[in-house]
Structures
1.
Amino acid sequence: MHRRRLHAYLTAALTLALLLTAHDRLRPAAAPPADSADHGVCRGTDPRCYHDWGNFDPATDGYRVLVYSRTAGPRHAHLGPALPAGLNPPLTPAHAAQSALVRLGTENGFAVDWTEDVTQLSSPARLFRYNAVIFMSTTRDALDDPAQTALRQYIRGGGGFAGIHNAFGTEYNWPWYEGLLGDANYYDHGRNQPGTVVTTSRRDASTAGLPARWDFTDEWYNLVPFPSRVRILATVDESTLPDGATGGSGHPGHGRNHPVSWCQYYDGGRSWVTTLGHAVEAWTDAPMAGDTSFVQHVLGGIESAMGRRPFCR
């Protein structure tokens, strides 16, 4: 009897050990610890910060993004007049940026919806229909409480975010959103002026194939705070700016490292952002130096944020 009990105990212990081993093999690697200075979330360039929870099935659903361009303050000319409520309201030639993003999707095999109606962002279930959400020059308090909650839950569920130009002039008093931007924010800028963009990483989907240096015209945002724990993808060479980088509120510029685009994993999701995109010509067929490189840059950023191409290399 004693031998039979001992054998039963050993068998049970061995079975438990095998089950625990199998569980450890299936469990994803532990994410790097969150830091309270980083809004209490996992962020940075380590892919262990990403939540691959199976909320997206491109093989079945394809790829789809939502362009959100609501403004509750100054409105950039590239957005055209404010759009009516609902999803996919009619666009006119004046809606240059929205139309350009729709065209990018058509030409590259992903669907694009667009809206300025905050109720379209009111629940995580709505947002999980999209592989990425694009904030296209939104301004000020562009989200209400339900939309803030839904965006946070969407990102925590592995969603993608692309912030373009004045996405940096949005939700100033929401620390979590500032973290989504790389723990960075818009401070000021000088006049719209020509400059030279420096491609600092050629490995990323948004910079692969870009020239090492390319001319462009923009407002060249100055930032406070400065982005941290991100992969900087492109900078502007301040020595090429005719009026320098000093901003209208006295910011002196960033010197040798003035970032314009970067990426990171954030709170379970992917975030790709760029301060570029001010000029209407950047979004239309009107000739402008560097517009082809800019569009290629944005396309790669969107495709990587939605998981179609490798992210933040």
Note: The domain at 37-188+261-305 is CATH 3.40.50 (Rossmann fold).
2.
Amino acid sequence: MSALPNREEKITLDTFLRGLWEENPVFVMLLGLCPVLAVTNSTMNAIAMGLATTFVLVASSTLVSLLRRVIPKQVRIATYIIIIATFVTIVDYVIQAISLDLYNALGAFIQLIVANCVILGRAEAYASKQRVGASVVNALGMGAGFTVALLCLGTVRELLGAGTILGFQIFSANFEPWVVMILPPGGFFVLGAWLLLFEYLKQRKERKLLDSEGAIS
């Protein structure tokens, strides 16, 4: 994991891509696992939770960055939580207005976005130290990484647990669904498999880097 910047940094492609791979909040940093395991029994739930979290992450990071020189250090955490809770309330009402079924499916995990370590961590470690542009780009990258992680779990669990993706039948009528995949244990099984894959890819990249350095020396 790359070190968090102690000074204002320039906006680069890495500012966005960092959250997708190098600092992926789920597969690398292991943050926000509660909603990852709880709501990813379908692809639609994963998309909705990912977009909701990304909105709150971007909006709160923007406001924290704008107010970073105004917020007293003694009450900064409480202020960040109030900011995050404000945008979570907006998301909560919007989802409830758009689809009551989706709102019921996500349950209390919409309100629990307030306690998501990904959002509070970005506010404290990044947005409070960076300009608005860099904070927004970084938040978009982290939100995209979180959404991709949710989709990785939600798609696999729905496909194996119901034979569908977004409600569309993928397998034939002869397919016997793996019901365990849409149950809570299925979330742990699929998450474990994705973590193994990410760790394998990380180690392979490190081995290639070491081999290339050895060849040069």
Note: Helices lie at 13-17, 33-38, 43-66, 76-98, 100-106, 117-127, 132-162, 184-216.
3.
Amino acid sequence: MTSYVFAPPPQAAVAVKGTSALFPARRVYCIGRNYAAHAIEMGHDPNREPPFFFLKTPDALLPTGRTFPYPPGTSDLHYEIEMVVALGKGGRDVPEAEALDLVFGYGVGIDFTRRDLQAEAKKLARPWEIGKAFDHAAPCGPIAPASEIGHPARGAVTLDVNGERRQTGDLDQMIWKTPEMIAYLSRYFELAAGDLIFSGTPSGVGAVVKGDTLEGRVEGVGEIVVTVG
């Protein structure tokens, strides 16, 4: 019998919509600048360049309806609403035509970012983890199984802060589509069941403060509600 020097942490997981089951999370991949308008607002060329990814830790996942604790070390905390792709199978060097076979379902997430710390890291040519991979930085709503909703390729992506619309986009505006993201990632990582992919955010990102309530939606997928505390 395996013996640990202390009790291992609980398995990070996301609810599955309409059931009591949980989706066990393995890795959390996030694609950067996957909507042209967001690339422009961040000061980058919107033309189709090779995709790039960063990671968040699975224990950064936060269920919908929970309070998100404002993180330390920042005065410029930004929201980014995103569709989340949940893999139920894995593989390496997955052909694009077969990539959707790996998908278990889809959810709605928020990529919280300590923008001031991310900007400082960029300026110093350092990794982004301090700006992206902090505690509770990846709220995620329930996963809707693809067997029920299909594979969304279009649909409104929105986020409201205190009832005011801040982000509006559409899944068909993604530069790199879901099959392309999966195929590309599988060239550099062995993907596995439990992997989550945050698929990028439309334009309109901005700062929030303590007390703000965020309501995000992806048409045909679901929603997420988070209060900054």
Note: The domain at 13-228 is CATH 3.90.850.10 (Fumarylacetoacetate hydrolase; domain 2).
4.
Amino acid sequence: MGRLDGSLPQVVYPQSEMISRWRHSQILTDLFWSAFIKYYLPNQQTRSKWQRDERDIAVGDVVMLIDLQLPRAMWLIGKVTKVMPSADGHIRTAEVLLKERTYTRQFPRMIVLPAIPDNMDTS
């Protein structure tokens, strides 16, 4: 979580062991990211072609742009500013605002992120 846990004993490791622990943490991070991409993200982008109608992407949706050329945790997140319906009436392309620039992307290269409710109780 990025903070010290007071319930755990504080241990000082020798310098020789620190490098192996760092490598181990990098391996665990790589395994987590691989599993995240393989199992979680595909579930966020359902492929229900010809099965049932899904909600089309809409203006104001927050999306993550898929770019396999970027390293982990570097995929860009933007907001849909304009949608372009195809001949069948479904949204296939959208304009996404990223850091004051607008990009046009196809829907299969976007993952709609879950919205945070406005009336969320913070107490």
Note: The two ends are 20 Å apart (CA to CA).
